[in-house]
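Severity: low
Component: inverse-folding endpoint
Summary: output formatting inconsistent between runs
Steps to reproduce: submit the following C-alpha cells with default settings.
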C-alpha cells in the first residue's frame, strides 16, 4: 500500500484540498471493484469506545464484516488487550490522536505532532505492531490546525499529515470517486449516517448513491448502544439494519486501508 513519494508530493502541490461535493458525472461506474461489485463501502468507528467492543464488533462478526477503528490512546488504553484481539481478528486499528482535541487554534504543527501524533504512534506501534502505512481520522472533523486563514490552517494540517499517513478521513462529503482518491488521500469523504437521528434510511440513501456512481462510501459511527442516548449514538437495532443492508447490497465491504490499497494499486488508475 506504500504510496509512490513522487506521486504523493505532486498530488498535494498547489494548495489546500477541499471536500466540496463533486458532480455525479465525475464518477466512473465502470471501475472494477472486487467480486464484480458495483461499488464499495468501508465501515469506520471513531474514538475507541467500550460500546464498540461490547456491541458493534459482535454485530460485525455476526454479519461477517470487517471494519476500521480509529482509536485514541486515552479512550482505549484501559482495554488495550481487547483491542489487540480485535486487530488479530482482521479489523484495522488506526490513529485518531492521543487525546482527541477539538480546540486546535493554539496548536502549532510541531506542538500537535509532539503532543498528539508522536505519543499516539508510539502507543499504536507498541500495542499493535509498527506500521508505515497508518491511516488518520480528523478529531471532530476539523480540517484546520492553528491560526490564520482557512488556507493556512488547512495547509498546515495537510503538510503535517502528509509526512506520516497514507490517507486521512473526514466526516462529510459524497462517496469517493476512485479516480480522485489518491489526489484527495488526506481528505477522503465520509458520512455519519446516524449522527442526527437513529434511523438507517440516511445510510441507505448514501449507499444507493455510491451504487449509482460506482464509488467508495465510508461510513462513520461512534457509540453503538442498546438504545440511543444522545447525538451521534447508534442503537443496536439500527446498526444491525445497516449491516444487513450492506451484506445484501451489491457492495464490496472492506476496511478502509484495504480499500485504499486496492484503489491505489488498481492498474486502470496508473
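Observed output (run 2 of 3):
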Amino acid at each position: 500500500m506504500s504510496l509512490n513519494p513522487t506521486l504523493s508530493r505532486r498530488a498535494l502541490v498547489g494548495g489546500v484540498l477541499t471536500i466540496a461535493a463533486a458532480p455525479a458525472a465525475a464518477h466512473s461506474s465502470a471501475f472494477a471493484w472486487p467480486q464484480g461489485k458495483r461499488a464499495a463501502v468501508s465501515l469506520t468507528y471513531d474514538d475507541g469506545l467500550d460500546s464498540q467492543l461490547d456491541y458493534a464488533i459482535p454485530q460485525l462478526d455476526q454479519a461477517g464484516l470487517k471494519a476500521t477503528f480509529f482509536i485514541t490512546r486515552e479512550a482505549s488504553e484501559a482495554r488495550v488487550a481487547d483491542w489487540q484481539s480485535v486487530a488479530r481478528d482482521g479489523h484495522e486499528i488506526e490513529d485518531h490522536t492521543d487525546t482527541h482535541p477539538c480546540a486546535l487554534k493554539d496548536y502549532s504543527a510541531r506542538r500537535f505532532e509532539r503532543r498528539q501524533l508522536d505519543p499516539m504512534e508510539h502507543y499504536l506501534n507498541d500495542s499493535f505492531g509498527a506500521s508505515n502505512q497508518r491511516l488518520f481520522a480528523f478529531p471532530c472533523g476539523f480540517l484546520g490546525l492553528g491560526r490564520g486563514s482557512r488556507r493556512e490552517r488547512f495547509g498546515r494540517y495537510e503538510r503535517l499529515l502528509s509526512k506520516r499517513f497514507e490517507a486521512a478521513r473526514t466526516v462529510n462529503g459524497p462517496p469517493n470517486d476512485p479516480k480522485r482518491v489518491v489526489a484527495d488521500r488526506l481528505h477522503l469523504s465520509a458520512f455519519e449516517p446516524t449522527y442526527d437521528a437513529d434511523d438507517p434510511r440516511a445510510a441507505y440513501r448514501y449507499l444507493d448513491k455510491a451504487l449509482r456512481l460506482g464509488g467508495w462510501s465510508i461510513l462513520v459511527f461512534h457509540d453503538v448502544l442498546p438504545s440511543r442516548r444522545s447525538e451521534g449514538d447508534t442503537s443496536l437495532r439500527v446498526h444491525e439494519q445497516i449491516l444487513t443492508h450492506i451484506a445484501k447490497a451489491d457492495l464490496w465491504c472492506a476496511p478502509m486501508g484495504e480499500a485504499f490499497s486496492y484503489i491505489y494499486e488498481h492498474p486502470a488508475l496508473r
